[in-house]
């Protein structure tokens, strides 16, 4: 949102004065915060202390959990901001930090899910060709560092700009709800900033991730591994759900809103603000990705919540063993009874 205090559009002003919308957004953030901290706190404990060895997939999951926990720690500040009627009281630097955490979580999550998808693609579709590369933990660590570097370089303007905005007529100071046009030097810089966020950090990873999971499902369908195929389909469904429900609306509306505001003086800010809430839901869905992506994580989680750690196939084998053992005991018993009978002398008739 670009503008100054004397030229704020009616859509933005109505949002700031809409108490019901503010409460609804705050409630969503509170629910997300609770689920985020509980689910990702447990996930982080399992991934760090209970999962070994630390495979590249596990390292990617730790990176994803770290960004989710950072978001969970930042959301209470956003909740307080909403309850105070969009009045930010913590200063410009804190506003920049909170905004950076929001968008870093989104785009690091996008890139990390792409990395997990690529790792599964190489491991299932090309298991021999890339076996040595996938085993190196250093490759996963370097990939995570490059992800953070790329995201922070794109979001650099958010770190160097005062994102607070004084609205005297409402007696509030907003945080990243009204952006100044001079945040970037010209329209070309704004276009490059938005292109990098929407296309480089979202659309390209989304296409790569979709390709990887479709290829994995096709490969497993050819190999007729029913259980593994079902799990891969569930994982693909959850990942694509996170992209379409959490990331796509926010990025599409951000691009649309900015273009409308820059060139047509129109606004769809209310829709964009609500999409920002849904973008936080990814931190609640990520633990499900770990469950379907890591066999070790599933095993440890089942142990912790006292669920049966055997798979359905193992359970059937166990039942078959018990049935065979029972039949064997019965057969042995019958043999013993037969031997007893045979030892009794037969009576002869006169």
From TrEMBL:
Its main location: membrane. Residues 39-290 form the G-protein coupled receptors family 1 profile domain. It is a multi-pass membrane protein. Disulfide bonds join 95-175. The chain crosses the membrane at residues 23-48, 60-80, 100-118, 139-159, 189-214, 235-260, 272-293. Keywords: Cell membrane, Disulfide bond, G-protein coupled receptor, Glycoprotein, Membrane, Receptor, Transducer, Transmembrane, Transmembrane helix. The keyword Cell membrane applies. PROSITE patterns: G_PROTEIN_RECEP_F1_1, G_PROTEIN_RECEP_F1_2. It is found in: Cell membrane. GO terms for biological process: blood coagulation; phospholipase C-activating G protein-coupled receptor signaling pathway; positive regulation of Rho protein signal transduction. InterPro entries: GPCR_Rhodpsn, GPCR_Rhodpsn_7TM, Protea_act_rcpt. Signal peptide: none annotated. Belongs to the G-protein coupled receptor 1 family. PANTHER family: G-PROTEIN COUPLED RECEPTOR, P2Y PURINOCEPTOR 8. This is G-protein coupled receptors family 1 profile domain-containing protein. It comes from Perca flavescens (American yellow perch).
